[in-house]
Backbone:
């Protein structure tokens, strides 16, 4: 075991204190050295007096001298860069999510953690906090624009809160339906059982898409994504991507010379086109069009295929366009759309995949309205 993590546990219940200490003592993720106090006041004094520094804080949100979100905000003010994982009751997950939105690294539900999952949660909280601190250091070194740093930090916090929510929501649905099918199978008709299993599969697919997005993003960040280009029929690639974008994509009109080919990794091109198409369907409006042209001179090596995915919606706010292909980028309009989920990573992944294929991605406003999301890749001819 290589890691030793000094852990400050602020918990009003002696029973819960001993439970967490026992659970962490059995974790193989790290060696947890736990120091416990029973009130927030004692915890704040311990943070002020400690010279060596704690690695992580486990904070009960219901203490004798503090209650609810105020408990977290007071602890966070004293903790500085030390990450905080909050504890909630089994029926109080919403308070945990709110704490994450205000800067907590994660939350755990009391009595629901095994040694590995609790240890992993704390270890990952420490790692994320250190990565965030490193990112902040680089940003401070590279720019004196304080407002840009603040906006980046806010975007990262929002992204982490979103990931926690996006993962927990389908897990909760899957767990609920699976539990009902296991514990009361006789109460379901065959049709109801099929519907329940379909819901489980749907939520599993949602989790798969999210993990694929995160893994692709991390691969691009690490420079580990390598293109395997081959000659691809452009109109066939478009048709395949529209089919993958869902039934609503039948509304797209495609304008493309059937003889156009491109030299590109087919999986990367499909991921980019699916992202453009699904974004148009989520945020845009009819008419939906995919328009393809070939540009460049007589030299075959200079020829490029340009694909534009066009919609007739409101378009992207002008002030947001410079950040459109950045990490964690979601406009206020996108955030405010009810029932529309997103990580803010999709377009940055598109740009990274196209760069790996000697291409590029950009946005153009539609005429007289709407959006044009564009990509350029080498021609196959």
Residues:
């Amino acid at each position: 075991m290589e890691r030793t993590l000094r852990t400050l546990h602020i918990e009003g219940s002696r029973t819960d204190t001993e439970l967490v200490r026992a659970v962490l003592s059995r974790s193989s993720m790290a060696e947890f050295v736990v120091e416990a106090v029973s009130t927030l006041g004692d915890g704040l004094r311990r943070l002020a007096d400690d010279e060596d520094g704690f690695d992580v804080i486990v904070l009960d949100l219901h203490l004798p001298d503090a209650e609810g979100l105020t408990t977290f905000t007071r602890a966070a003010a004293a903790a500085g860069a030390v990450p905080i994982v909050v504890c909630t009751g089994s029926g109080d997950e919403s308070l945990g999510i709110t704490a994450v939105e205000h800067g907590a690294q994660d939350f755990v539900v009391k009595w629901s953690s095994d040694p590995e999952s609790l240890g992993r949660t704390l270890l990952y909280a420490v790692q994320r906090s250190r990565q965030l601190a490193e990112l902040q250091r680089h940003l401070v070194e590279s720019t004196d624009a304080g407002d840009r740093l603040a906006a980046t930090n806010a975007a990262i916090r929002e992204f982490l809160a979103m990931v926690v929510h996006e993962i927990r929501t389908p897990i909760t649905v899957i767990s609920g339906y699976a539990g009902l099918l296991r514990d009361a199978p006789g109460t379901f008709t065959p049709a109801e059982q099929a519907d329940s299993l379909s819901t489980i599969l749907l939520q599993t697919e949602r989790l798969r898409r999210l993990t694929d997005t995160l893994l692709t993003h991390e691969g691009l960040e690490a420079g580990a994504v390598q293109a395997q280009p081959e000659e691809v029929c452009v109109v066939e690639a478009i048709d395949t991507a529209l089919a993958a974008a869902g039934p609503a994509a039948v509304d797209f009109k495609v304008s493309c010379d059937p003889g156009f080919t491109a030299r590109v990794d087919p999986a990367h091109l499909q991921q980019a086109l699916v992202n453009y198409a699904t974004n148009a369907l989520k945020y845009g409006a009819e008419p939906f069009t995919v328009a393809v042209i070939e540009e460049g001179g007589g030299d075959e090596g200079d020829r490029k295929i340009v694909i534009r995915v066009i919609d007739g919606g409101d378009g992207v706010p002008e002030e947001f366009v410079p950040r459109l292909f950045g990490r964690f980028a979601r406009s206020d309009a996108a955030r405010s759309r009810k029932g529309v989920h997103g990580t803010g990573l999709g377009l940055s992944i598109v740009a990274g995949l196209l760069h790996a294929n000697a291409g590029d991605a950009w946005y153009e406003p539609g005429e007289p309205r709407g959006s044009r999301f564009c990509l350029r890749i080498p021609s196959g001819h």
User: Anything to note?
Assistant: The CA atoms of residues 312 and 370 lie 4 Å apart. Residues 146-183 form the longest helix (38 residues). The domain at 230-378 is CATH 3.30.565.10 (Heat Shock Protein 90).
